[in-house]
Amino acid sequence: MASRNFSKFGKRFSRKNGITQLMSDLGNAKHSNNPNTIMLGGGNPAIISAANDKFISELEKLISSSSINQMIGFYDGPQGSEEFIAELVMMFNNHYGWGLDEKNIVITNGSQSSFFSLFNLYGGEMEDGTHKKILLPIVPEYIGYADQGISEEMFVSIKPEICMLNDKQFKYKIDFEELINVMSSDDIGAICISRPTNPTGNVISDDELNQLDLISKEYGVPLIIDNAYGQPFPGAVYTKATLKWNTNMILCMSLSKLGLPGLRTGIIIAEHETVEALSRISGIMVLAPSSVGPSLLTRMIRDNELLQLCDDVIRPYYKEKALTAVKLFESVFKDVDGYLHKLEGAFFMWLWFPNLSITSEQLYNNLKADDVFIVPGQDFFIGIDDDWDHKHQCIRINYAKDELVLKKGLEVIYNHVKSSQK
Ligand code: PLP
After folding, report:
1. Fewer CB in a 10 Å sphere around the end CB: N or C, the chain?
2. How confident is the model at residue 35 (pLDDT cuts 50, 70, 90)?
3. Domains, the chain, ranges and CATH?
């Protein structure tokens, strides 16, 4: 049969792309039942049994109460569950003193869908015919943004400054001089950054955040902060970093990294006009966001049990895993030219091998042949030309694993890197 005649939108959104191919590789590996597979790819949170048990017991309580009817039998409004939003408003105001009201929060079907709406709200073709872009102040950045623009050329991005640290570590920092150049010369509709960053585990400092805040205000564009791994939930932050919100900021949160990715719940905090616009977009696209996440967590937020769980169980779990990851990096990679991005948040190790004679993509394929799955780094350098060597020298590892499995995987990676040094 002749191929279907898809629209421009259809073609853009159904074309093959590197990351979808990679994710299906990871999916196939996970379901292959090969006992030798070491899975260090993917962005799934760990199943932390103390947290998982708590969520399941909450679900059981919900099922035997009348609230279950609200969860499965009624649509929420397009802005999301009013009860859930009211509890969130109270919690954020009590904790951070932000002075939110119920018109400052909208619920979505996961933060991936939040970004789709936000990028296309602030970027793309404007009524006056101009074309606005979303500025990523630092790449590597979350790969999930890359293909979300309804129009072409949605993003402009900036290479980071690379600061070498002790103990074979490094940290990416924002090149503010270049950022100002881009703000002045390009048509920017919004700035967006993940904090903590997937894939690097970077947490931009309070000072960097404050500078971004000032610059975005000066140029009259919103600053979108992707807080999927940040405080208060799951709170996977291991450095001093203040959570900030003001009416020029759009703060995006998610229930996924708490251990609830299947519930598909995202939370956006923004000024009223943006919340209203996002609610209307939601109404058109999905009528109403899923009620499952809000129904499950409303009581736990009201009774302060969710924050307690993050403080007592989830954050310590990831912090411990981060310490183990650094310790293993230091022992396994001590005699190769390899560097670890300073691990300040999320649950990824970002490794840089400047002396590889092969690309990170070839390294990925070689490791795959040995049943070790990682994510090669090049696709995270959204909008950066292929001729920057650094783009082909990095890999991402999900370290929220059993220590022995992680050690074994790192040793296999070490052997491949050692034999592929220039
Ligand atoms: N933002 C970042 C930085 C992520 O890593 C992810 C998922 O891995 C998302 C957003 C999307 O998460 P979700 O749609 O599950 O809320």
Report:
1. N
2. confident
3. 9-51+308-420 (3.90.1150.10), 74-303 (3.40.640.10)
pLDDT tens digit string along 296-320?
A: 999 999 999 999 999 999 999 999 9
Range 41-44 contact pairs with CB under 8 angstroms and sequence separation of 24 or more: 41/373, 41/374, 41/375, 41/396, 41/398, 42/373, 42/375, 42/398, 43/198, 43/348, 43/398, 44/261, 44/398
309, with CB counted inside 10 A (0-12, 13-18, 19+), is buried
Question: Is the overall model pTM greater than 0.90, yes or no?
Answer: yes
Tokens of 168: 């074979």
Question: Given CA atoms 231, 232, 238, 242 in this order, what sign does their dihedral have?
Answer: positive
For 50-103, the pLDDT digits (tens) are 999 999 999 999 999 988 988 999 999 999 999 999 999 999 999 999 999 999
For 102-155, the DSSP string reads GGGEEEESSHHHHHHHHHHHHSEE-TTS-EEEEEESSSS--GGGTT--SSS--E
What is the C-alpha radius of gyration for the chain, rounded to an integer number of angstroms? 22
Protein residue closest via CA to atom 11 of ligand 1: 112
Distances in Å between the Cα of 371 and the Cα atoms of 20, 30, 348, 375, 407 are 19, 11, 19, 13, 14
Q: Which residues pair with 171 in a beta bridge?
A: 163
Q: Return the ligand 1 atom nearest residue 43 CA.
A: 8
Write the single-letter amino acid at 210. N
SS3 275: helix
Q: Which residue's entry shows tokens 């103990």?
A: 167
End-to-end CA distance of the chain: 50
* Residue range 92-122, pLDDT digits in tens: 999 999 999 999 999 999 999 999 999 999 9
> Exposed/middle/buried for 69, CB within 10 Å: 0-12, 13-18, 19+?
exposed
Residue carrying structure tokens 């900030």: 244
**What does the mean pLDDT of the chain come to?**
94
Cα 295 to the chain's mean position, in Å? 24
Q: How far is the CA of 143 from the centre of ligand 1 (A)?
A: 10
Read off the pLDDT band of 1 (50, 70, 90): low
Residue 1 CA to ligand 1 center (angstroms) comes to 37
Q: Is 200 in the pocket of ligand 1 (CB under 6 A)?
A: no
Which is the closest atom of ligand 1 to the Cα of 196? 3
- Please tell me the distance between residue 309's alpha carbon and the centre of ligand 1 in angstroms: 21
